[in-house]
Design a protein that fits this description.
The chain is α+β, with helices and mostly antiparallel strands. 28% of the residues lie in helices and 30% in strands. The chain has 5 helices and 15 strands.
């Protein structure tokens, strides 16, 4: 507060000196007069600057909670990333509050990590995952309505190279790249849909898929993180949105 007062006194002194053209003394602050036109204009500019600086210090004094946001580079009233992220209940990653929306797409969870076990191909369909509003739900008792299913043709134990990934008939799927936004993901599914399954040879870390389930109105961006060539286990991460009503 003291600093703000000093700048206010200096600013007022300079402006008064500019107007009256005489020495001005306010308390312990003395502003000498100057008869030159440029000097008086400079005095006025200095007065305005000093008042502005004083106003900033006064604001920070009266609003201490906002000063920390200004110092951190965040907009006033914005939570830090640590307070925005909450632990996902169904795996690692973050859950976005339902009110958070990108455009018309409401993000439900972000970068939720999970694994669909291959288990060395012990059965025809060793595992699957279904994407819900709460996140990915992995099952070792798959249903053909699940969004992604691991398949082992002929159920030959250990025949990992023959394994492939299939999708529910309710899903439209597109292979993408570059971590697209929700809108771009939805557009890719419409414009460049995949047809058929994805063979094990194509299942490489970094594979990115966008998926839209017409029955659940879920839009999901899925990234394949790692592949276990011995067991067929696939590690993924998923980000999910609720589709807008007109999508």
């Amino acid at each position: 507060m003291t600093v703000a007062a000093i700048f206010f006194v200096i600013g007022l002194g300079c402006l008064i000196g500019f107007v009256v053209g005489k020495d001005v003394t306010i308390g312990n602050v003395h502003v000498p007069a100057t008869g030159e036109r440029n000097g008086r204009i400079g005095m006025a500019v200095l007065g305005v600057v000093a008042l502005g600086i004083g106003s900033v210090f006064l604001y920070l004094y009266l609003h201490p909670s906002n000063s920390s946001s200004i110092a951190s580079g965040l907009p006033v009233g914005t939570d830090t990333p640590a307070t925005q992220a909450t632990a996902g209940a169904n795996g690692t990653g973050t859950t976005t509050p339902p009110s958070s929306a990108a455009g018309n797409f409401t993000q439900e969870y972000h970068d939720r990590q999970f694994t669909t076990p291959g288990g060395g191909c012990p059965s025809l369909e060793p595992s699957s995952v279904n994407f819900t509003a709460q996140g990915p739900e992995v099952s070792t008792s798959p249903s053909f309505s699940d969004d992604i299913m691991l398949n082992c043709p002929g159920s030959v134990t250990g025949d990992i190279p023959a394994m492939y990934v299939s999708f529910s008939s309710n899903d439209q799927v597109a292979e993408v790249s570059g971590t697209p936004s929700a809108g771009a993901c939805d557009g890719a599914v419409t414009q460049h849909p995949l047809s058929g399954n994805i063979d094990f040879a194509h299942l490489k870390p970094g594979l990115e898929l966008c998926m839209v389930n017409s029955q659940t109105s879920q839009l999901t961006f899925v990234v394949l993180r790692s592949v276990n060539n011995s067991s067929g286990d696939l590690a993924w991460s998923a980000t999910g949105w609720d589709l807008p009503a007109n999508s």
